[in-house]
Design a protein that fits this description.
alpha+beta; 1 helix; 149 residues; single chain; 3-stranded antiparallel beta sheet
């Protein structure tokens, strides 16, 4: 064994050590990001629930401008957030108020914080009772007081 062999062997050990430290740092970074993602996800879910509880739907069965039967009304947003992509669920009920069918519709446009937005959609058959609720939505932005149009 020569002296130059010792140096190259020591150099290999140093490379292994650097690689191990780099791998450990990458692994710890990944774990930290995953934990932060879980915390952020839990916060977003709580916020989404809070906004969902601030939404209400007001509607009536009517005749549209084209002479067709319709469900027309407003979705009210009493939260601090502008929302969009609002999907409505219409549950068709039997005589004992049990859900026997459902259909879906959209509210076209964003609903400002503390605002409302109209919707119109085809109704269930005239002899059926039903209820309308917000199925889903997307948070667009938090709005300060007086920022909404």
């Amino acid at each position: 064994m020569r002296a130059s062999d010792d140096v190259s062997l020591a150099g290999c050990k140093g490379v292994w050590w650097v690689r191990s430290r780099t791998a450990l740092a990458l692994m710890l970074s990944a774990v930290a990001l995953a934990v932060l993602g879980l915390i952020d996800s839990a916060t977003a879910q709580a916020l989404h629930t809070q906004v969902a509880n601030s939404l209400r739907v007001e509607w009536q069965r009517t005749t549209s401008l084209g002479g067709r039967p319709a469900i027309e009304g407003y979705v009210y947003n009493d939260s601090q957030f502008r929302i969009g992509g609002v999907r409505l669920r219409v549950e068709i009920l039997d005589g004992s108020n049990q859900v026997v069918g459902e259909t879906f519709g959209w509210v076209y446009g964003n609903i400002a914080s503390r605002g409302r937005w109209p919707f119109s959609m085809p109704p269930p058959p005239a002899d059926k009772s039903f209820r309308v609720a917000v199925e889903s939505f997307h948070l667009v932005a938090r709005e300060a007081l007086g920022e909404s149009p």
